[in-house]
Amino acid sequence: MAAQSLLYANLNPLLISGSTGNQIKAREQFLGSFPLKAKTTRPRLSNGCRARAAANAVALPVEIPCQWYNVIADLSVKPPPPLHPKTFEPVKPEDLSPLFPDELIKQEASTDRFIDIPDEVLDIYRLWRPTPLIRAKRLEKILDTPARIYYKYEGVSPAGSHKPNTAVPQVYYNAQEGIKNVVTETGAGQWGSSLAFACSLFGLNCEVWQVRASYDQKPYRRLMMQTWGAKVHPSPSDITEVGRKILQMDPSSPGSLGIAISEAAEVAAANADTKYCLGSVLNHVLLHQTVIGEECIKQMEAVGETPDIIIGCTGGGSNFGGLSFPFIREKLNGKINPVIRAVEPTACPSLTKGVYAYDFGDTAGMTPLMKMHTLGHDFIPDPIHAGGLRYHGMAPLLSHVYELGLMEAISIPQTECFQGAIQFARTEGIIPAPEPTHAIAATIREALRCKETGEAKVILTAMCGHGHFDLASYENYLQGKMVDLSFEEKKIQESLDKIPRVIA
């Protein structure tokens, strides 16, 4: 029985609310029927991956995918290439080598449908993967909706979000090339803490530029990074030339992800022993996150459900792409036909209010030009914007998928998001991070619409992290201090006017 208990503890089963004692006993008997092996075999792909299933679908563990899925392989129109910031010519691999290790550069440009996950990465994934898919029965009940709501919960990772899914492989590939130092930016702190966690496992030094507004508002995220050994700077800082210029123009600058990216990229480009890591936006980042959707497909199959609508929050796009891309593959293959809906904040609405154009990924214009939905690389969201999702642009690959009509997008104000988060916390027990509150609010909208129409839709949403270090935002909401931010057309237009004029 001790061995069977150990097996059960390492399987992270699909969770379904309301399991009975008999069902739990049946689950244990089911798990006990599998003999233990000294060495586990690698699971097959999502398109042939095994899932252990109990007859009554009470606890259905799935194996961690052994490959990442690349949606580019299945798109009839390939996305536009990134351009060199000076020549405006397509970027060559050698242009990216000062910033990224060779394997990540290959993945960035790959058109292969599947890419193997290294065994060393899988071993670390097993600390928290597979993550649970949970049916939100209590939320359904309070909403009095016929809809069935499921959420894929990534908050069980050591860093409390989906970000380690890409932090671990990025640090692994840098370590394989003998790199000793990595640098990055972070907004709300989820990415910075995830990279710090990964670096602690592989013995790399980690340096993080955290957006000043978040650095001040979220000290515990900073302390998480420092606990895992990272050095953290508020951005803009006086360490870099970019930071010093920003501070000369505005000594009280709240910072932005674009500024923080510029600072980290400057340090990486100037030091041969240092590489840059990015937590969202780029193709290889979204690629690594597809473990979310691959697991979720098998978990939904295990309970006999097919999503009618898939909802996720979008800032740079990694969480949303990670969940939705494997489902888009199934949709393109004619197996399912869900509505796929991205939700962004009205304070930083790149998909719904931005333009689709080539723009810099950073404020200083050091990065390649990427064709994406953008508010302009000079855009700085208001520091009272409570959540993450602060980036001026959307992932180029996600922007391309949006342009192809394979998904839709809406924006929601932050007070509605936190109202939904409170409902979720008081029914499901989990306090969401500010980012997934957007998806929760949109899910509640859809569930109430089903109440009006009588449709029993299956709604799948992404719960990309917990909000244990974001309680100051909840305090503002509960005390009535949170306000909705208006969309300033003039501010956006001034930023958009500075986008490079590239004909493509």
From TrEMBL:
<dbReference type="InterPro" id="IPR001926">
    <property type="entry name" value="TrpB-like_PALP"/>
</dbReference>
<dbReference type="GO" id="GO:0005737">
    <property type="term" value="C:cytoplasm"/>
</dbReference>
<comment type="similarity">
    <text>Belongs to the TrpB family.</text>
</comment>
<keyword id="KW-0028">Amino-acid biosynthesis</keyword>
<comment type="function">
    <text>The beta subunit is responsible for the synthesis of L-tryptophan from indole and L-serine.</text>
</comment>
<comment type="subunit">
    <text>Tetramer of two alpha and two beta chains.</text>
</comment>
<keyword id="KW-0822">Tryptophan biosynthesis</keyword>
<feature type="domain" description="Tryptophan synthase beta chain-like PALP">
    <location>
        <begin position="127"/>
        <end position="465"/>
    </location>
</feature>
<keyword id="KW-0456">Lyase</keyword>
<dbReference type="InterPro" id="IPR006654">
    <property type="entry name" value="Trp_synth_beta"/>
</dbReference>
<keyword id="KW-0663">Pyridoxal phosphate</keyword>
<dbReference type="GO" id="GO:0030170">
    <property type="term" value="F:pyridoxal phosphate binding"/>
</dbReference>
<dbReference type="InterPro" id="IPR036052">
    <property type="entry name" value="TrpB-like_PALP_sf"/>
</dbReference>
<dbReference type="InterPro" id="IPR006316">
    <property type="entry name" value="Trp_synth_b-like"/>
</dbReference>
<dbReference type="InterPro" id="IPR006653">
    <property type="entry name" value="Trp_synth_b_CS"/>
</dbReference>
<keyword id="KW-0057">Aromatic amino acid biosynthesis</keyword>
<dbReference type="GO" id="GO:0004834">
    <property type="term" value="F:tryptophan synthase activity"/>
</dbReference>
<dbReference type="GO" id="GO:0052684">
    <property type="term" value="F:L-serine hydro-lyase (adding indole, L-tryptophan-forming) activity"/>
</dbReference>
<comment type="pathway">
    <text>Amino-acid biosynthesis; L-tryptophan biosynthesis; L-tryptophan from chorismate: step 5/5.</text>
</comment>
<protein>
    <recommendedName>
        <fullName>tryptophan synthase</fullName>
        <ecNumber>4.2.1.20</ecNumber>
    </recommendedName>
</protein>
<dbReference type="Pfam" id="PF00291">
    <property type="entry name" value="PALP"/>
</dbReference>
<dbReference type="InterPro" id="IPR023026">
    <property type="entry name" value="Trp_synth_beta/beta-like"/>
</dbReference>
